[in-house]
Specification:
With 74 residues, the protein is mainly alpha-helical. The protein is 61% helix and 0% strand. The protein has 3 helices and no strands. It is extended. The termini are far apart.
Length: 74
């Protein structure tokens, strides 16, 4: 017997209506970048108990941002 480690279909089924409503709202507004991403960043910052959150375009960029460190001029 094979036991699945992760059942994404079952997880998606619990939030399907909410996800589809959010996608429909974005598609209707045609605001793909600024409005919704600002809302998501604010929610993530609040959830993380931080002042700010940064959005990136991919998981690779997220890892790169974590590894980068600000180099200040001397």
């Amino acid at each position: 017997m094979q036991v699945p480690l992760l059942d994404l279909k079952a997880q998606y089924a619990t939030i399907r209506a909410e996800v589809e409503a959010a996608i429909a709202e974005v598609m209707e507004s045609q605001h793909f970048i600024l409005d919704e991403s600002r809302t998501v960043r604010k929610a993530i910052a609040q959830y993380s108990n931080r002042s700010y959150a940064v959005g990136v375009s991919s998981g690779t960029d997220a890892l790169l941002a974590c590894l980068m460190r600000r180099i200040s001029p001397r």
